[in-house]
Amino acid sequence: MQDKGISSAVVGRLPRYLRYLGDLKEKGIERVSSQELSRLMNVTASQIRQDLNNFGGFGQQGYGYNVDYLYKEIGKILGLDREYDFIIIGAGNLGRALGGYLNFERRGFIFRGIFDKNPELFGTEVRGVKISPISELDSFLKKNNIDIAVLTIPKTGALEVIDTLVDNGIKAIWNFAHVDLDVPEGVQVENVHLSDSLMKLSYNISRYADDNKNGDKD
Ligand code: NAI
């Protein structure tokens, strides 16, 4: 299957396909046409066909898509056909919320450790995982094969731990700290800024309000 050189826009849409196909699977639906998927997802059928054609199509004329097969193939493309061990650095509100979220496990992301610098938190647990002192991060990483580090600490803290993570072979960083990280090639970084999403919402609220105001005048 050809999945090299796929645009990040297409890759960015794949998790949404996976969610909808997962819902169809749960309802016991075995096949779906691009038109049906289009109605459900509120994107054009041609967009769906174009997106999926990047990977060889998966569809059959007159049959549509086999839901289970497409779900598995998109999962494979997204690298979800294996498990990933992750740790969280920063056991504050955000770190604890992410550690407590069971659904990551269902997708194959296994919560292995959580670290903080606040001694009051040491030994308390997040979903059965003990919060450990950040001073133990290095030895923990040497003993455990961890794929992903989630950074839910302020930016100075993130800059402090990055070398330890990289030196111990972390493959990817899910970065919630508001700082751009300088990592060697081969270490994947996904920056998350929830406020970006909120700003999109505020943009849409004000655009909608403006459109309606203009509409009133017409
Ligand atoms: P919080 O204050 O509840 O938790 C931060 C935790 O990090 C504390 O337990 C603190 O002891 C620990 N910490 C600080 N420096 C550390 C270090 N060097 N090593 C280990 N632990 C350290 O804050 P909250 O709400 O959980 O947010 C965490 C960070 O994520 C904040 O810096 C915040 O700005 C950022 N954030 C980012 C969002 C995003 O969308 N990117 C959304 C919300 C928060």
What's the structural blueprint in terms of helices and strands?
Layout: H1 8-26, E1 31-32, H2 34-41, H3 45-53, E2 65-66, H4 67-77, E3 84-89, H5 93-99, H6 103-106, E4 109-116, E5 125-126, E6 129-133, H7 137-143, E7 148-151, H8 155-167, E8 172-175, E9 188-191, H9 194-217
Parallel strand pairs: 3-4, 3-7, 4-6, 7-8, 8-9
Antiparallel strand pairs: 1-2, 5-6
1,4-dihydronicotinamide adenine dinucleotide binds at residues 89-95, 115-118, 134, 152-154, 157, 160, 176-178, 192-195.
Provide a brief overview of the structure:
The chain has helices spanning 8-26, 34-41, 45-53, 67-77, 93-99, 103-106, 137-143, 155-167, 194-217; strands spanning 31-32, 65-66, 84-89, 109-116, 125-126, 129-133, 148-151, 172-175, 188-191.
Overview of the structural elements:
The radius of gyration is 21 Å and the shape is globular. Helix 8 links the parallel strand 7 (148-151) and strand 8. The chain has two domains: 8-77, Winged helix-like DNA-binding domain superfamily/Winged helix DNA-binding domain (Arc Repressor Mutant, subunit A, Orthogonal Bundle), CATH 1.10.10; 84-195, Rossmann fold (3-Layer(aba) Sandwich). Helix 1 (8-26) runs antiparallel to helix 4 and helix 2 (34-41) packs across helix 3 (45-53). 23% of the residues are buried. The N and C termini lie far apart (53 Å). Strands 5-6-4-3-7-8-9 form a seven-stranded mixed sheet. A two-stranded antiparallel sheet has the order 1-2. Helices cover 47% and strands 17% of the residues. The chain contains nine helices and nine strands. By secondary structure, it is α/β, with parallel strands linked by helices. The mean pLDDT is 91. 1,4-dihydronicotinamide adenine dinucleotide (NAI) is lined by residues 89-95, 115-118, 134, 152-154, 157, 160, 176-178, 192-195. 1,4-dihydronicotinamide adenine dinucleotide binds next to helix 5, strand 4, helix 8 and helix 9.
